[in-house]
């Protein structure tokens, strides 16, 4: 052990006395666990709840994958780590930018910081879009690894700290639109724990199942049973297991199964003329089959002649809008980085999503299924689970309520009795 503890972003983390495995269950709305508890299908997670700690915490806004994973691993909110969506508009170029480049992240991760001080860490993600940011400044010279299930067949020692991952895990390359993508991540974590014994593991899953299947659906039940068995194995191998999620998930369709969508750019162009603004949907990523690039939070960038006040006035009575802010308001209320904010931020209500122009969104990949997606405050609630009992100080913090998902590493490394 190189040091007794590590400081990152104002938090002092104790050096782990045994492996700590933090799992981000992508799309893991607390309702899935509630159903699992009541139906008896997740005995391991039920035991964690009863013998360790369980609460519902609030994640970061907007409730999308990239900002929340970065909040979890940096112990901060977007106003500090800088990642405020999967996409934003670069005002200098006028072009949308995917927010997955390491240079856009304004902090190191817990994994990177520990690795730089001699710890052996493992970061395994379902999709490669997160991998490079999570790996920022990570030292792979001490047995640490960082790779994705998506590109597990392309790993090299130089880039990922490991090669021949498919042989190592003993699984074929999983399909991108399958439960197997998440299960591969967990199986890789188990294999690493069996053979390499990393001090810290971060395992980030994908929300394919949650987008397609509500709590209680047979497919969702089968998936949670598979998760539960793997969490048991992680604990059997001696790890403290900590579980949270990047966001929840909710049904956003009407009684006939049609998505409840506000086409915001169409509305604004009808009011102010074509080209008056650009609506950016920060849920957008390379996997729109999950959600059709429709979520509960968008940003409006005004072009010359249009003001934020005009936009706010024009949409104030649109049914389905939960709340709208100017840039300064959303920065203050939702802890966003001002320099990556639009002129107006708009959030849907509990049953409504917001798009840009109807012609820009291809919903064919939904294949007639009900739209289930995320992005608003109604999907910001996430589970917060620790497999072991907490010490007195952290038990008191947990009992007080108001937990945030970005505290999960703090609790897992500092809070065990």
The rounded Rg comes to: 21 Å
- Give the neighbour order of strands across the main sheet: 4-19-10-3-9-7-8
Mean pLDDT, all residues:
94
Could you state the CATH homologous superfamily of the largest domain? Alkaline Phosphatase, subunit A
Indicate the percent of residues in helices: 25-40%
Q: What's the number of helices?
A: 16
Main beta-sheet strand count, sense and barrel state: 7 strands, mixed
What separation lies between the terminal Cα atoms?
21 Å
- What class would the helix/strand composition place it in? alpha/beta
Strands, total number? 19
Instruction: Name the shape in a single word.
Output: globular
Indicate how many domains the architecture comprises: 2
Write down the CATH class of the largest domain: Alpha Beta
Any idea what the CATH architecture of the largest domain is?
3-Layer(aba) Sandwich
CATH topology of the largest domain: Alkaline Phosphatase, subunit A
């Amino acid at each position: 052990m190189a040091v007794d503890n590590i400081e990152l972003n104002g938090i002092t983390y104790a050096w782990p006395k045994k492996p700590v495995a933090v799992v981000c269950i992508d799309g893991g709305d607390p309702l899935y666990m509630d159903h699992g508890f009541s139906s008896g299908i997740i005995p391991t997670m039920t035991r964690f709840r009863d013998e360790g700690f369980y609460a519902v915490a609030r994640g970061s806004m907007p409730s999308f994958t990239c900002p929340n994973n970065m909040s979890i691993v940096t112990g901060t909110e977007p106003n500090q780590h800088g990642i405020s969506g999967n996409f934003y508009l670069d005002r200098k170029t006028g072009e949308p930018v995917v927010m997955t480049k390491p240079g856009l992240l304004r902090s190191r991760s817990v994994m990177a910081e520990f690795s730089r001080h001699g710890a052996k860490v493992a970061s395994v993600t379902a999709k490669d879009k997160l991998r490079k940011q999570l790996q920022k400044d990570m030292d792979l010279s001490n047995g640490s690894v960082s790779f994705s299930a998506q590109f597990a067949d392309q790993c090299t020692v130089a880039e990922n700290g490991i090669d021949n991952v498919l042989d190592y895990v003993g699984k074929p390359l999983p399909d991108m639109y399958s439960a197997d993508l998440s299960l591969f991540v967990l199986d890789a974590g188990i294999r690493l724990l069996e053979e390499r014994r990393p001090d810290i593991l971060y395992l980030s899953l994908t929300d394919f199942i949650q987008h397609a299947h509500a709590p209680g659906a047979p497919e969702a039940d089968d998936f949670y049973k598979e998760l539960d068995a793997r969490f048991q194995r992680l604990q059997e191998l001696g790890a403290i297991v900590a579980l949270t999620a990047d966001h929840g998930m909710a049904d956003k369709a009407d009684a006939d199964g049609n998505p409840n969508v506000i086409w915001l750019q169409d509305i604004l162009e009808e009011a102010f003329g074509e080209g008056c603004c650009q609506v950016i949907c920060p849920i957008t990523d390379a996997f729109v089959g999950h959600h059709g690039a429709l979520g509960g939070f968008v940003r409006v960038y005004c072009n010359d002649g249009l003001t934020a006040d005009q936009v706010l006035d024009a949409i104030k009575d649109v049914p389905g809008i939960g709340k709208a802010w100017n840039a300064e308001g959303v920065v203050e209320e939702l802890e966003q980085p001002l320099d990556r904010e639009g002129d107006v931020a708009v959030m849907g209500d509990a049953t409504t999503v917001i798009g840009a122009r109807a012609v820009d969104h291809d919903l064919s990949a939904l294949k007639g299924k009900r739209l289930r997606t995320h992005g608003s405050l109604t999907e910001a609630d996430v589970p917060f689970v620790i497999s072991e009992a907490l010490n007195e100080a952290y038990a008191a913090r947990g009992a007080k309520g108001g937990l945030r998902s970005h505290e999960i590493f703090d609790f897992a490394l500092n809070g065990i009795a």
